[in-house]
Amino acid sequence: MSDALFRGWLLAWIVWSAVPVGALVLTLIHAVTGGRWGEVLAPALRPAITLVPLVALTFLGVVPGLEAAFPWAAGTGAQPDVLRYYLDPALFGARAAVTLVGWSVLAFLCLTGRCGKLAAGLGLSFYGLTISLVAVDWILSVEPGFNSSAFPADVALHQILAALAFAALASPPSLDARGASDLAGLMLAALLGVIYLELMSYIVAWYGDLPPKAAWYLKRGESPWSAVLVASLVIGGVLPFFALLFATVRKSPALLRGVGLLVLVGIAGHFAWLVLPAYGAGAGPAAMAALFLLAGLTLLSSLAGRILARRTRRLRHV
């Protein structure tokens, strides 16, 4: 039972953290490129960025159940040299700490207006390096035999897409048709990027026909995971894609909220398809419970932030 709880927490954390991290990446990109789109998305992205330190703190829930979530933590599932020089609990913790602390620092710089073009460029470089490591650590290493060079980019695009979908879902009533159209265009581009990487990764694995990769995909092609894959593809990919082709949808904040919700559900299903087949029964319900808990922590954090902001403003007026 405890193993299922830790495994569920890992999956829920991966799903929940996608929005804050993606919001941070989009804000860094805007700091480098500029553009009206960043101003349009800021009311939704900035509150999400405030959660990045909470993302770092809640990762601590994974640490006590490391052996339950990752077979290599118990010294099995990978080659001895891989276990010694990469998939080592101490090295895993060090990579996670550097990544999460670094992301939190970048979030602080963005929120305090201290992130200029140079800092944002360096921050994006840091993100690119760290996501290349932790995407493997946190997701692929639940089954160490499988690897994909495109996987970190795929995870990064999912995080960006999740942040855009959240921005659509949480868009303010003041969002005009032009701003909605900008957001829809970004969502469509990110969605196409995700679909392209997923499809090409599968084609390369199919063409190579290597036993470890074939076994990984075959496990996820069995019931019920094949149904999860199809559902996440239809809900989070096909329906949003065709919806965003219509100008009426692209210019309507209300309709974009529906599209954003579909995309977020699809992303959650996709991450579940990646992780859950490696575990036994029980991890799925545990992940749902953990996701509700993380949502509750998000609300409490948001409420505490608002109270602190009000008190700070009052002190300034004194």
UniProtKB/TrEMBL annotation:
Lineage: superkingdom: Bacteria
Spans through the membrane: 6-29, 49-70, 90-111, 118-139, 151-171, 183-205, 225-247, 259-280, 286-309
Keywords: Membrane, Transmembrane, Transmembrane helix
Keyword check for Transport: no
Keyword Transmembrane: yes
Protein known as: Uncharacterized protein
